[in-house]
Known about the structure:
Blueprint: E1 18-24, E2 27-33, E3 89-94, E4 101-104, E5 115-119, E6 125-131, E7 134-147, E8 153-156, E9 168-170, E10 176-192, E11 195-198, E12 203-213
Antiparallel strand pairs: 1-2, 2-3, 4-5, 5-9, 6-7, 7-8, 7-10, 10-11, 10-12
Amino acid sequence: MLLTFPTPAFAACTLPVCVDVYTQNNQIIIEAEKPGTATAKKSPRPKPSPTATLWFPPKPTASPHPSAKRTYKPRTLKPKALTQTANLSDRLTKLVPTGGIAYQPEFEPLVQVPVIFWVDVPQIFQSQVNIIGEIVDVGLRPGFIWSFGDGSVWATTNIGAPFPHQVITHTYKKPGTYVVVLLTTWNGSFTHNGAVRAITGQIVKTSVATVTVVSAPTRFTK
């Protein structure tokens, strides 16, 4: 069962920038927020109500001389101030790799002969992200549970390796077709402004492979 994070940890954060990393739906969720930076909008000032005044007819004015020309001053428009809005919160998503199962020998391993297994994922998953101007380093390490299909189970933190550096091996005692299931669980931490915090939750990936094991041929010698 996967752990989810229903409430952001920075809900009560008082730092200038709050960062949280957690898992959800087998993904890494990175969130950042600048709390307390929202400014309230000013309400428009009410216009004054008109007051009653007495009206008098305008006095006649002398008309200008026909030859006189009116001069007009050019009207200058003040440039409007440009306002920029900053993104005060953001959310990023990261995926961890899903590894496939590899084994040797690849074609019809023999009974009573060790089969070598490994998985092609990194020993550590690292990612650095820039979110609303903040640098966050994320790191997760995998743990493995091997089920070899014959009832044998083995847990390890090693990804394994092919021959001649094999680490994970299993010997089948009977011929047959076996379904090998590998459960990979990712856990880790993240770093922000020099502080290291655990990532809430975990990511679980499943890989499957089919191995057909055969009997060794019988030879007659004199």
